[in-house]
Amino acid sequence: MNADVQVLCSKCGGRGIRVVGNQAVRCSCTRRNLEEVRYKASRLPERLTRHYFEGFDFSFYPSDASPGDGKNTSYLEMARTALQAAKDFVNNETTGKPDKGLFICGNVGSGKTFLCSAIANALLRSGKDVLFLVVPDLLDEIRASYGQDSGTTEMQVLDAARNIPVLILDDMGAHNYTEWTRNKLYSILNFRLNNRLSTVINSNLTLEEIEQFLGERTTSRIVELCGIYRLLTPRDIRHLKNRRRRM
Asked: Where are the beta strands (DSSP E) in 68-123?
């Protein structure tokens, strides 16, 4: 079949509307098309579109061990709490009762991005508009907007992050932040706080470390925007998965 030939829906013939009894109803193909548009606009990487809450694997979080930070909370307890917080966040968003966002911190390979992408997938499937941005890529995009050949302006990049109903910021880690980059992130978070827009952030840094890299102002906005949750593992889950595949 020629790839350029459009395949029309067998139910509605491509009209988007079909007649059921005496009523005209929107065809299911229209809903699928709208979902595809939302996914493309969300910028959620293709490899993360398969992550759902049902796939969260508790076996990587021991119930008989803890990080040894004096809080006496096991890895499994932290994982259960973080997962439930993520589910509650989605439920609040989809029922029109948005509450605080989420700040999920933990070591590299502890499942933070999995949980954030599961949030994105659940919201996108429910019809919510989401923007998924990797923080280093966002900052590079802002820098690139200054180039003569750039097709976007700095304000367009910032406005997209400021105004989206749900913003997910992935990997707010120990990057080479300058005063310029700190100001850009503060601008986004401060706007979202003032306009009560939901924000989800994950980081391999604690709040105390975030303050060292991004300053007190930005950390204060994160605390006001988000509930704080830890997701830790004794070992990088990605390494453990690779070992399982080789066995």
From this structure: 101-105
CA 201/CA 218 separation, integer angstroms: 13
Strand order from edge to edge, sheet including 166-170: 130-134, 166-170, 198-203, 101-105, 226-230
* pLDDT band at residue 16 under the 50/70/90 scheme: low
Q: Kindly report, residue by residue over 55-98, the tens digit of the pLDDT.
A: 999 999 999 999 977 678 999 999 999 999 999 999 999 999 88
Give residues with Cβ within 8 angstroms of 118, minimum separation 6.
Answer: 51, 52, 53, 55, 56, 86
Q: Which domains does the chain have, with CATH numbers?
A: 1-42 (no CATH), 45-246 (3.40.50.300)
Kind plus residue range of the DSSP H or E element containing 241: helix 237-246
Cα–Cα distances (Å) from 90 to 93, 123, 147, in that order, read 5, 6, 38
In the three-class reduction of DSSP (H, G, I as helix; E, B as strand; rest coil), residue 219 is classed as helix
pLDDT digits (tens, 9 = 90+) for 31-51: 677 889 999 999 999 999 999
Q: How far apart are CA 231 and CA 80, in angstroms?
A: 9
Paired with 167 in beta bridges are 131, 199
